[in-house]
Specification:
This protein has 190 residues and is mainly α. The protein is built from eight helices and two strands; from the N terminus they run ααααααββαα. The chain has one domain. α1 packs antiparallel against α2 and α1 packs antiparallel against α6.
């Protein structure tokens, strides 16, 4: 699935718990960080028509989709968080939701599946995949992203903070204020 879908997944998980801004950010990032190896697409695209193409994306994407990396992310999240155990547990959940989303809907345009070698680098015996995996641009991925976007908007309206807070508290306040002005609460008896 797309990084946007993973981001929204992490934020929805974080926003449904009673966490401070820092901890919500850690949980949100835990749902995105397995795809940091996807940044290899930049040098791959830039060098594809050269005599020595760099195949970092083709060869290494999904190598961080492992239990070992999950443990590292969870440990770092728990160490940095204010509510360490709760945040660490939610980081674990968000990370694994990313993996689930990829198993469900990350088939390439050529029909090739990217299995997730969950126990790598210790063992390659466990490969997570699903025969019904849909393509990245399939309608279920768009539907999931749309549902997460609606959940994000609702939670932002209801709780008074949005994913924008990760980047700017001031912009987050403006966004939530605009959202609440557009969709005011109904006053009973007026």
């Amino acid at each position: 699935m797309s990084p946007v879908t993973h981001f929204l997944t992490g934020w929805v998980v974080a926003a449904t718990a009673q966490l401070e801004r820092r901890d919500r950010t850690l949980v949100t990032l835990s749902a995105v960080v397995p795809d940091v190896d996807g940044l290899g697409i930049i040098p791959e695209v830039l060098t594809r028509n050269t005599s020595h193409p760099v195949l970092w994306f083709s060869q290494y994407h999904h190598v961080l989709h492992t239990l070992c990396f999950a443990v590292a992310v969870v440990a770092l999240g728990g160490f940095v968080a204010r509510q360490s155990w709760k945040t660490a547990a939610l980081c674990f959940v968000a990370f694994h939701l990313h993996l689930l989303e990829d198993v469900l809907g990350s088939r390439g345009p050529d029909g090739d599946q990217w299995p997730i070698f969950y126990l790598a680098p210790i063992s390659s015996s466990v490969a997570l995949s699903w025969g019904g995996q849909w393509a990245l641009n399939a309608w279920p991925n768009f539907l999931i992203t749309f549902a997460l976007l609606l959940a994000t908007l609702y939670l932002a309206w209801r709780k008074g903070f949005s994913p924008v807070e990760i980047f700017s508290i001031r912009a987050d306040h403006a966004f939530v204020t605009a959202l609440r002005c557009r969709f005011p609460t109904k006053q009973v008896g007026r």
